[in-house]
Design a protein that fits this description.
The protein has about 70 residues and is of the alpha+beta class. It has one helix at about 60-74, and strands at about 5, 10-15, 25-30, 40-50.
Length: about 70
């Protein structure tokens, strides 16, 4: 799962193949800062976003997931 540190947030995003389909769904998890470097504080647990959309490739789903995550932390 690709991840990225943006400001104080750590974002994980992924394309996950949908059951019984050749299409992909966009998944996001967002973590906030923690006083313990061995622990992440989940702010938005991993879940599918843009649920009305299916994507033809993992890369397209990951791009959508990243876009949604960025809009959530703005």
């Amino acid at each position: 799962m690709p991840s990225e540190q943006i400001g104080k947030y750590e974002i994980e995003y992924a394309g996950v193949q949908l059951a019984n389909s050749e299409n992909w769904g966009a998944h996001v998890a967002i973590f906030g800062p923690s006083t313990n470097p061995m622990h992440r504080t989940p702010l938005f647990p991993e879940q599918r976003v843009s649920i009305e959309s299916e994507f033809p490739s993992r890369e397209a789903a990951e791009a959508e997931a990243r876009k949604v995550a960025l809009s959530m932390i703005e």
